Amino acid sequence: MICLLLALPAVPSHAETPTDSYLDALADAAPAPVLQWADCRDGFSCATAQVPLDYAQPGSRTIGLSLIKLPAADPARRIGTLFVNFGGPGRSGVQRLRERARWPWLFSEALRARFDLVSWDTRGVADSAPVRCFPDATAQQLFLTAYPPLPGAADGERPFFTASKSLAEQCQANAGDLLPHVSTVDTARDLDLLRRAVGDEKLTYHGISYGTYLGALYANMFPGRVRAMALDGSLDFRGNAGIDTVDQPIDTRQDVATGISGTFDAMLSSCTAAGPKCAFSEGNPVDKWHRIIDRVRREPIAWDGTRYDYSAVITAAGALSNPAAWPQLADTLQHLYDLRDTPYRPEDALAEAMSLVGRAAEIGTGSAGNANTYDDNYTEAFDAIQCGDSRVPRDESVYSALAVSEDQRVPYFGRLGVLGAMTCAYWPQTAVRPYSGPWDRRTAAPILVINGRNDPATPLAGAAAGARELADAHLLVIEGAGHSSMYVHSTCAEAAKREYLIAGTLPPAEATCPADGNPFERN
Q: Distance between CA 474 and CA 451 in Å, rounded?
């Protein structure tokens, strides 16, 4: 250990913040985790990797990262490990690989034959030193159940702002020791230790959605260690960090509102093309949508025990990431259209509230089968990572003004991009640690960026900007709607990604791939 430390830069004084290069050197000096893989059902193996909590003090406290692996189906032809981050941030990579490793449009048999697929719960998430902002699951569920909906108009902003601030304060009070150490910069250092732990000289990586940001940071922090990197459903990386425009919220910088609007239009077009297979296709779906909006601006609609006010309808209509859910959305829209002239009765919407209260009660008594265990920390982990990664406005009036101007610019969906990560406006400043660059370090291999023509979460313009920010990235466009090739089925895009990851072969410049069929016509 002494010999390793002698090669490091001089230690910054106590009053200084350690530089990124100094911390990267410390990460290099840290020993690779020892992975003891054990069977964990259905052909998967699981392990725990011990990594430093604070890379400025690598010899101090460590945390365990939960990993899962699906071994290569053809060990004799195995190339190495394909690390996968499924996005979020805040979702369990362990659970998602278990669920999705055998989705053929995402990981074909040919790809699974050549690589061990490995994913992990990133720090702060699920079983990897989880950020927990409440003392137990009962407190968590009661708080989240009472959380006000995203406000569709100015009169709903005050309770929403108050709840967002309270969540940030709860996180600082209950997880303040973790918050400064869960940003993507530290996760990129973890990923390099994991690469070393599996014995790969260079990293092969597939990042989806938020996972593209992790990939971009790794590529610039460790450019010589990239073997192949597919970034799927990609971001404007500088925009995510708030390098150039700190006066706007995260999703406004990414222009998510335009992405949602374009995808909603594509959904209505697919519905019309599908005819009777889409419940909302009869007549003019665009006109029917406007009639629904006119109604819920006057008063809500009660249907199936749920109160659909303007905010609820916009939020439901904006949930477009997975085209497999579009038929259900079309069914909901048709029911709302059919009920557009029915007077609202509050008692018809009581079932939703009673269901939520009952769920919280079940958690508190253990009757849901979890005995008050803290099973899901997605909301807290999302905020801890996203807010730690990004500089945003701290003044509530900025959000109120932008909600109005963005709704004027992008009707219906503008404010979704303004208020979607409101907790970040109140996040403790000591935990805001965005990556500041460089962004254009030349990697040992070119990077493949994949994005849909209409993506509601990572719009194509942002993906193109992110590709330009990297020194050597090539963009492949899927001519479809939905979020990433994880949800937008494209045999062509999977083949291009597979050939790149296996052989390093890039698709032709300015290539595009069709999506596979109409979502309303799949079985």
A: 11
In whole angstroms, give the CA distance from residue 465 to residue 441. Answer: 16
- Give the SS3 label for residue 171: helix
C-alpha–C-alpha distance, residues 217 and 243, integer Å:
14
> What mean pLDDT do residues 156-161 have?
95
Structure tokens at 453: 């023509």
Q: Which of helix, strand or coil describes residue 309?
A: coil
What residues contact 471, with CB distance under 8 A and at least 6 apart? 223, 440, 441, 442, 443
In the chain, the amino acid numbered 522 is R
Phi and psi at 167, nearest 5°, equal -65, -45
Which of 458, 63, 474, 97 is closest to 259 using CA atoms? 458
- Of 109-113, 153-157, 449-453, where does mean pLDDT reach its minimum? 153-157
Residue type, 57: Q
Tell me the pLDDT tens digit for each residue of 400-456. 999 999 999 999 999 999 999 999 999 999 999 999 999 999 999 999 999 999 999
Residue type, 223: P
How many other β-carbons are positioned within 10 Å of the β-carbon of residue 208?
Answer: 28
φ, ψ (nearest 5 deg) of residue 205: -145, 140
Calculate the alpha carbon distances from 301 to 211, 293, 311, 353, 490 in Å.
Answer: 38, 11, 12, 15, 37
β partners of residue 125: 128
Q: Which two tokens stand for residue 208?
A: 């989806």
> What is the distance between the alpha carbons of residues 448 and 523, in angstroms, rounded to a whole number?
31
Beta carbons of 149 and 121 less than 8 angstroms apart: no
What percent of the chain is helix, strand and coil (3-state, nearest 5)? 50, 15, 40
Look up residue 516 and give its two tokens: 């596979």
- Give me the helix-helix angle, 285-298 and 310-317, nearest 10°: 150
Please give the Cα distance from 11 to 186 (Å, whole number): 19
The string of pLDDT tens digits covering residues 15-35 is: 344 556 655 666 677 889 999
Count CB-CB contacts under 10 A for residue 122: 29
Handedness of CA 392, 397, 402, 403 (dihedral sign): positive
Which residues, 6 or more positions from 377, have their beta carbon under 8 angstroms from its beta carbon? 90, 125, 126, 130, 131, 132, 133, 140
| Nearest of 104, 86, 107 to residue 95 by alpha carbon | 86
